[in-house]
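pinned: reference chain
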Amino acid sequence: MNDFMNQIQNFSDPGQVVDIASISICLILSFLLSLVVAKTYQITYRGVSFSPSFMVTLVICSMVIGAVMMIIGSNIARAFSLVGALSIIRFRNAVKDPRDVAYIFLAMGIGMACGTGFYTVGIALTAIVCGASLLLAFVEFGEHGLTERVVRVQVPITNEFEGIFDDTFKLHAEQFSLVSAETTRMGTELELTFSIKVPKKFSAAKLIGDLSALNENLRVQVVGSNHVLDL
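pinned: its structure tokens
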């Protein structure tokens, strides 16, 4: 308790002086290691909404965290003041892929390791985690041979719209289900959204052709997984 009060009383104390060499090593090593992380993310990414800005964010995040850890040092009061300053920031971008969260935490871990002088930990963390990520991507860990697609089809208003395309989907997909149905064009047409699971040799052109023959050549759209779309 006494140590804590002393830290609070020494709030204005600038703390220990950090030399230029330590600052340079921290920032440069954070930069290099986070580059490896960002490149690993790019190589192993399997989605359809890849964002180059996220790679830049990983690099900058790691360097900033490293600098923040050097600023805080062992000063408890400085740590509490930093938490208060950062609490006013609000992040409103939803993270759609759980892997993105893992890479953010990895970049933060590297920055914390470099900022506190545990350079070996930072290097080992980068090498082992990135190596594991590449290995899992190479062996296609977690994949089951089927890929998911979202199909949107416009049809004229009909009382039996749910079963119109069943036979066609059975020819092209292993599994399929109707996700939603909504009216368009002032209630004169329906837009049906299906989630289908198809093999790797799936042909979108053949599916579109077969569906167009059944919906009077109205709009047919085949897009990526519903994990990256807001349905």
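why pinned: Residues 146-223 form a domain with the Alpha-Beta Plaits fold (CATH 3.30.70.260). The longest strand covers residues 146-156.
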